[in-house]
Specification:
By secondary structure, the protein is mainly α. The protein contains 12 helices and no strands. It has helices spanning about 20-25, 25-40, 50-70, 80-105, 110-115, 120-145, 160-180, 185-200, 210-220, 220-235, 240-265, 270-274. The two termini are about 35 Å apart. The relative contact order is 0.15.
Length: about 270
Amino acid sequence: MERESIVIEPRKGWVPVDFRELWKFRELLYFLAWRDMKVKYKQTAIGVVWAVLQPVLAMLVFSVVFGRFASMPSEGVPYPIFVLTGLLLWNYFSAVLSQSTTSLVTGANLVSKVYFPRLIIPASSAIAALIDFLIGFAVLIAMMLWYGVGLTPGVLLAPVIIAVTLVNAVGFGIWFSALNVRYRDIQYAVPFLIQIWMFASPVIYPASLLGERWSWLMYLNPMSGVIEAIRPAMLGNRPIPWEGLAVSAVIGIVVFLAGVFYFRRVERHFADVI
């Protein structure tokens, strides 16, 4: 008796995400995220402590260079708190972007031999990086207490701001991961892009430094809106710029949906070219 062969292929064309299929493979998503965490800190002497040291050391460097020597304005709050608040969101965004870009190529054996929603691979980077972000967020709370900066009711908006950051990071990550399968130059260009992008975002300086005339131009950068929103939400030093946050959310949704559609259109070729 001949066995019936079953061929499983990804959907063709511009189709929406099959959330039921993604939910079916949710355990794989958790496994890949856990694997990324283990690989990241494997054979390190202090392990996950690096999740604390990296933002703290960067904060110290920026505080000395830009806070002390350059006298960068910090909107009425201690500069270390000012820069760490923006740095945490930026580190999360850049970590997801850089890890997801190379995720399909590094997982080539899995992609070419086993069927599952390929979208899970770049998406898992967002979960793995979220652990580091939450650890850094706890450090920020501790430093705020140290400097006598109290929490405000605006902190309840923090999950929304983090979610907007996640949508932007995963959206751009999906685009770059799919492009990187065919054009490996992407993985070399992304680190350079991230460096430029950081200085184009108000991480180490306030957006008000550009003046009202040019502030609208900065908000075309989706990271500007979330960074400018997280500071007043956490520190209560000024009103929350709702317009900038809304622009970041809209850009994030558009980039995410466009990225998913492009990803689903080209994923059937991944196993052939990876």
